[in-house]
Design goal:
Length: 191
């Protein structure tokens, strides 16, 4: 797209923000709305290039390029709400393109003209990244956020496996280390 030039673009490096992991937000199909809420005026340029950090290394998932049509401060939320609209020219690469980029410190909102030359294509996956199929009973350990996505999207492989088995499960509070051990023996099994 010849309209998108680095001098008109902000790069959004998204990851864990203290309460949400942006990869899970993306996999839940909530990223566009989630990204629109900003505590500061981070997107004061016509375009936003959004990347999500994968596994806390230098690999980033391309989410899309957005038109930024301004923002408004909403007192009731204490945040800026950006009017972001995804551009259609790169939809075939969204969730498939992996790039490498060494983040320059902790900043999450970069001026593209300073860094665009450092972003390198690493991989183009054949399909959009999504929640994996059920991996098997002995390999199942999920965060609450991941579990919520599986249930909300009603992923067939997970529902089939978990609805047809009764069993014992453990919920661990990672902050306190406390465990809750429960059992699911009724209709619908663990699902």
């Amino acid at each position: 797209d010849p309209v998108i030039v680095p001098e008109q673009c902000k790069i959004h490096l998204s990851g864990w923000n203290g309460s949400d992991d942006s990869l899970y937000v993306y996999l839940a199909d909530d990223f566009d709305e989630w990204q629109s809420w900003q505590s500061k005026r981070n997107f004061d340029r016509p375009f936003v290039l959004s990347l999500i950090n994968l596994s806390h290394d230098n690999h980033w998932l391309f989410v899309g390029i957005y038109d930024s049509a301004g923002c408004e401060w909403l007192d009731e939320h204490g945040m800026n709400y950006y009017n972001l609209k995804k551009r259609s020219g790169t939809t075939d690469l969204e969730g498939r393109l992996i790039v490498t980029f060494e983040r320059p410190g902790r900043q999450s909102y970069l001026l593209a003209e300073n860094w665009s030359g450092d972003i390198k294509v690493s991989e183009i996956r054949p399909e959009r990244m999504q929640i994996a199929d059920f991996p098997g009973y002995s390999s199942t350990m999920l965060t609450k956020q991941h579990l919520d996505i599986v249930v909300r999207q009603d992923i067939v492989s997970w529902r089939s496996a978990l609805a047809n088995v009764a069993g014992v499960y453990v919920i661990a509070d990672r902050a306190t280390g406390k465990l809750y051990i429960g059992s699911a023996t009724g209709m619908g099994g663990i699902w």
